[in-house]
Structures are given as structure tokens and as C-alpha cells.
């Protein structure tokens, strides 16, 4: 097993880094440790509009990204440590086999962690780690989160209360679990950098640590720009769905319904005496599913009250 | 010759998976070893490769469908 250092906190770069290593390092087992600035990361086949509240995340300046593995939506911040294990795929899907080395390493540095459910790690029944996988071309990417010192109130607000019930769709649902931070359960305190260094020392010997070459780094940046920052990957891959919302806007009854397929909005109906419904329908019909685009439409329709309208529309 | 592509059982307990993406379109030619579709089960996205080459004659299931292990997802016309 080798380690490749990923010094960035940019989630777009980091997801590209991980995919690049997964595709490129075919001969060796690789272990990565990385952290993201606050962001929401959804599974490969999740509906962003159901699993997150796009309008709220946009206001908070928290980007939404799509990863290449399965599973549910996860809130990341710098108190959350991500690990990736890239290996040959031999035999059937087996989370126990992938989790065992990480569990052993956590136990060795004093974290009283145990396996929980199919692919979680917990302390005292509370989740500290979730994981997901991607298998392609004979290689396996197993990766997981490690809540070390994450902002659990932000996590709670964004992931637990962040479901959008007005979306009817296929796609993978996220599970909601009680969580805790590793740091609270350590015999002696340490900061997140020390935790990462000690975990790495357990997983990979000193002499097997590498960095990407400038050329490889340039390839990561291309993948970041062409895939992870693209609308097509993040929003265009949202499974088809029907959105339907009733409520109140500017004191008047409000109703909206639309469909979205491959991220393109159609069959729009907006009914509310406080806004020009026909104009709304005209602006949204054929539009891309995109919070910034929707915000511009809302500004045109509702001026000062655009955020209130945005909350009702996406 | 027509052959059915069926959803592989990726671990003994697997009963079904969600077909999340077709990587090839109906009518397209696929070579042996080329990825044809992706399924998700138990938080794993698996790229499924063609075991032999041919033309994807008909896609039997849509993206988003839950498919039982062993069930056919497409018909491949082999050379």
C-alpha cells in the first residue's frame, strides 16, 4: 500500500484527485487521506433536489458535488477526515474486508470504534464513519468519512432537516443516523492533523509516501474542471423526477409543479396571485435545473422576495 | 445470435440492484470487456462489462429501475 498526499481542501479538486488515482494507479494499492471545506457530497445516483435543500445551501454558500460511488448524501467540513482505499477487486462485494484495516488502525490509536450496520463504524452505537464503493475495470474504490471534530449542528441542519419532501423520484435514498465526533472519545486529546498523521502511520509505512507529478496534477485539474465543476455531471445526472409544492408566497396561495429529466425542466405550472404565473412558466420551461439559474428567474419574478420564492421552487 | 445480458449477483446475499446508468445506447456496438451499464447495490456502484462483443439490440430496462439479480436488462446480438 502506498500513500499519495492530497494537500487540497477544495472538494472539486479532491474528488477529481481521488478519481484520477482510482483510474491511473492500476498496479498498486493506494491509501488517501483528505479533507474538504464545507460542502455537500451526494452519491452517484442521487436526486439532489430530494436529498438536499438547494436553495438553502446556495444561501449558505455550501456547494453540492456528486461523487462516483454509491450511497447517500454527506455533509463535509474540515473536521471530517475522508479516507480512500484503492485496491484490486477480487471476489464479491465485501465491506467487512474493506473496513477491517481502518478499524484496526483506529483501535490502535485509541479510538474505541466498532463496526455498525453493513458499512458504518460507530462508537457506542453512534456513527462516526459511513462508507461507499465503486467497482470498475477490476479495481475497487472503497472510501469513507471519519467524523473527527465536525460541526455536528451544521450537519444536523443540512443533512437531517435537509430533505425535500416535494420531490417524487427514483434514486438512492440517504439514511439518517445518530452521529458523534471521534475527538470526544479519545483517551488523550489530539488535533485533526495529529489524528490524520497517526492514522496514516498505521496504514502506510514511512517509505511509501508519494506526491503527484506536475503532469498528474494537471490531469487532476482538468478532471476537476471538466467533470466535477460541470453542470452536466452534478445536476444533469439527477434521476428524473416530479416536483410539486403547495404553500404561501407573499401572503397568497402558491402552487408549483414541474418535471425534470436529465436536469431539464418541463411541464411547468406555477399558480399564485402574487406573481405572473405565465411569465414564471415561460422562464422555467426548458431551463436547466440549477439553483443560480432559478435564483435569476426568481429575482425577475419577485424582486426583493426572490429568496422566499426560490425556497418554494427548488 | 441473440443473448440476454442479465444482472449479475455481486455478492451471495444480493437480491436486486438499481440500474443507475446505461453507458451504451440501443443499437451501439460493444466490445468484450467494455463497460455497458452501472448498477448500485449496498452503496456500491458497479460498472458491468460485456463478456462478449456484439450490438446492443434492445435495452429492456430503464435507468432508475430496480432489477432482480439474474433478470435480463438487455438483448445483445452477437456476431
Mean pLDDT of chain A: 95
- N-to-C CA distance of chain B: 7 Å
- Write down the overall geometry of chain B: globular
Radius of gyration of chain A: 21 Å
| Mean pLDDT across residues of chain B | 94
Q: Layout of SSEs?
A:
The complex is a heterodimer of chains A (314) and B (79).
Chain A: E1 2-4, H1 11-24, E2 30-34, E3 39-42, H2 48-51, H3 54-60, E4 64-66, E5 74-76, E6 80-88, H4 95-108, E7 114-116, E8 120-123, E9 126-136, E10 139-147, H5 152-160, E11 167-169, H6 192-203, E12 209-210, H7 214-228, H8 231-234, E13 241-249, E14 252-261, E15 264-272, H9 277-284, H10 291-302, H11 306-313
Parallel strand pairs in A: 1-2, 1-12, 3-4
Antiparallel strand pairs in A: 2-6, 3-5, 6-10, 7-8, 8-9, 9-10, 11-13, 13-14, 14-15
Helix pairs in contact in A: 1-7, 9-10, 10-11
Chain B: E1 2-6, E2 16-22, E3 29-30, E4 35-41, E5 44-49, E6 54-59, E7 66-68, E8 72-77
Antiparallel strand pairs in B: 1-8, 2-4, 2-7, 3-6, 4-5, 6-8
What does this structure look like?
The complex is a heterodimer of chains A (314) and B (79). Chain A is of the alpha+beta class and 314 residues long. Chain A has helices at residues 11-24, 48-51, 54-60, 95-108, 152-160, 192-203, 214-228, 231-234, 277-284, 291-302, 306-313, and strands spanning 2-4, 30-34, 39-42, 64-66, 74-76, 80-88, 114-116, 120-123, 126-136, 139-147, 167-169, 209-210, 241-249, 252-261, 264-272. In chain A, α10 crosses α11. Chain B has 79 residues and is an all-beta fold. Chain B has no helices and 8 strands. In chain B, the strands form 2 sheets. A 4-stranded antiparallel beta sheet of chain B has the order 1-8-6-3, with no helix packed on it. In chain B, strands 5-4-2-7 form a 4-stranded antiparallel beta sheet, with no helix packed on it. Chain A binds chain B through residues 43-45, 68-72, 92-95, 118-119, 131-137, 170-172, 237, 239-240, and chain B through 10-12, 14, 18, 20-21, 35, 38, 40-47, 49, 63-65.
Amino acid at each position: 500500500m502506498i500513500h499519495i498526499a492530497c494537500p487540497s481542501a477544495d472538494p472539486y479538486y479532491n474528488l477529481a484527485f481521488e478519481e484520477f488515482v482510482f483510474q491511473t494507479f492500476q498496479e498498486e494499492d493506494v491509501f488517501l487521506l483528505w479533507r474538504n471545506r464545507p460542502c455537500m457530497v451526494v452519491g452517484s445516483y442521487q436526486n439532489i433536489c430530494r436529498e438536499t435543500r438547494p436553495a438553502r445551501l446556495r444561501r449558505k454558500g455550501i456547494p453540492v458535488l456528486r461523487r462516483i460511488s454509491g450511497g447517500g448524501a454527506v455533509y463535509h467540513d474540515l473536521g471530517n477526515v475522508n479516507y480512500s482505499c484503492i485496491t484490486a477487486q477480487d471476489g464479491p462485494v465485501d465491506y467487512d474486508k474493506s473496513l477491517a484495516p481502518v478499524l484496526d488502525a483506529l483501535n490502535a490509536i485509541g479510538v474505541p470504534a466498532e463496526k455498525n450496520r453493513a458499512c458504518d463504524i460507530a462508537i457506542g452505537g453512534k456513527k462516526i464513519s459511513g462508507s461507499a464503493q465503486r467497482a470498475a475495470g477490476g479495481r475497487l474504490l472503497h472510501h469513507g468519512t471519519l467524523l473527527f471534530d465536525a460541526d455536528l449542528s451544521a450537519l444536523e441542519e443540512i443533512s437531517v432537516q435537509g430533505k425535500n419532501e416535494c420531490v417524487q423520484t427514483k434514486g438512492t435514498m440517504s439514511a439518517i443516523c445518530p452521529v458523534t465526533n471521534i475527538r470526544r472519545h479519545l483517551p488523550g486529546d489530539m488535533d485533526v492533523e495529529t489524528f490524520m498523521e497517526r492514522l496514516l502511520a498505521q496504514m502506510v509505512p514511512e517509505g511509501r509516501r508519494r506526491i503527484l507529478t506536475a503532469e498528474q496534477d494537471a490531469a487532476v485539474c482538468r478532471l476537476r474542471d471538466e467533470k466535477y465543476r460541470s453542470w452536466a455531471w452534478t445536476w444533469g445526472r439527477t434521476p428524473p423526477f416530479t416536483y410539486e409544492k403547495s404553500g404561501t408566497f407573499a401572503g397568497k396561495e402558491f402552487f408549483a409543479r414541474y418535471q425534470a429529466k436529465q436536469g431539464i425542466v418541463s411541464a411547468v405550472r406555477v399558480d399564485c396571485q402574487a406573481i405572473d404565473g405565465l411569465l414564471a412558466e415561460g422562464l422555467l420551461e426548458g431551463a436547466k435545473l440549477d439553483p443560480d439559474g432559478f435564483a435569476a428567474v426568481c429575482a425577475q419574478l419577485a424582486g426583493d422576495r426572490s429568496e422566499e420564492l426560490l425556497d418554494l421552487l427548488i | 445470435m441473440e443473448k440476454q445480458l442479465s444482472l449479475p449477483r455481486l455478492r451471495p446475499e444480493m437480491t436486486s440492484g438499481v440500474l443507475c446508468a446505461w453507458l451504451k445506447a440501443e443499437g451501439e456496438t460493444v466490445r468484450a470487456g467494455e463497460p455497458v451499464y452501472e448498477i448500485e447495490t449496498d452503496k456500491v456502484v458497479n460498472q458491468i462489462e460485456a463478456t462478449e462483443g456484439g450490438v446492443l439490440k434492445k435495452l429492456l430496462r430503464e435507468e432508475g429501475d430496480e432489477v432482480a439479480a439474474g433478470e435480463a436488462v438487455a438483448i445483445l446480438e452477437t456476431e
